[in-house]
Structure formats: structure tokens, C-alpha cells
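look at this record:
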Amino acid sequence: MDWLSHFAQINWLAVLLAFVSSMVVGFVWYMPAVLGRRWMQAIGKTEDDLKNIEGGAGIWLPMMLASALTSILLAVLLSALDINTFFGGAFFALIVALVFRAGGHVIHNGFAGRPSAVTVIDSGHDIVAMTIAGAIIGAMQ
């Protein structure tokens, strides 16, 4: 478990900025004027449907925790692999996002029978958000 030793080398400000950047990307990505309207259409929901979803913090907290853990693990991996540049971090995160995040969307949405637009929009979000997070962490390692 040598990779755990890299927790001591994490730049927590970089992790925080990567987390915040992911939230900002998601906010912009899913705005109705950007891709939100198309995404809602693809999942069969309206803005009113989404505004009236019950659950409050039960919806937001797990999503934010997952995003925070993604930024932390990305920082550990970049440190363990000695990737400490903007472009190195961005490229590594891009590859990880393509394989694990987009790949997961393709598998799960495919078996669930969801429209391909959902997969493309959600995968695009994850690829952009993770690439930016990796660039931030890589530049600040």
C-alpha cells in the first residue's frame, strides 16, 4: 500500500480548487442554455420536475462527496506517478475519465436502455471536469 504514503504529499489547496472547478463545470454544463435542456429532454424530465425532486441534501451531499473523493484520489495518483505539470495532470485525468467515467456511462446507460444523448452529455461533463481537475492538481503538485 505504498500509494497511501502519497496522502502526505497532497496539496490540499489544489484538491479544493479541483473540487470547486468540478462543481462549476457541472453548474455550467447542465444549465438549460448550455446542455441542460437537451439532457432533461433525453432523461424525460422538465425543469419543474427537477426543481420539485424530493431529497434535498440527500441528493447533493453524495454527489459532492463523490466529487471530493475524485479530486483526492486524483491528487494521490498524480503524486504517486510523479506527474506534476499542468499538461501532465490534464492528460492523465483525461485518460482516466475516458476509460473509467465515460466507459462506465457507456456500460450502465447502454444496459439501462437510456438514450445515447444521456451518455454523451454525462460523459462529456465528466471528461471536461476531470481534465480540468487534473490540470489544476498537476500544476500545483
Helices lie at 12-29, 32-43, 47-51, 57-80, 86-112, 116-140. The mean pLDDT is 93. The two ends are 21 Å apart (CA to CA).
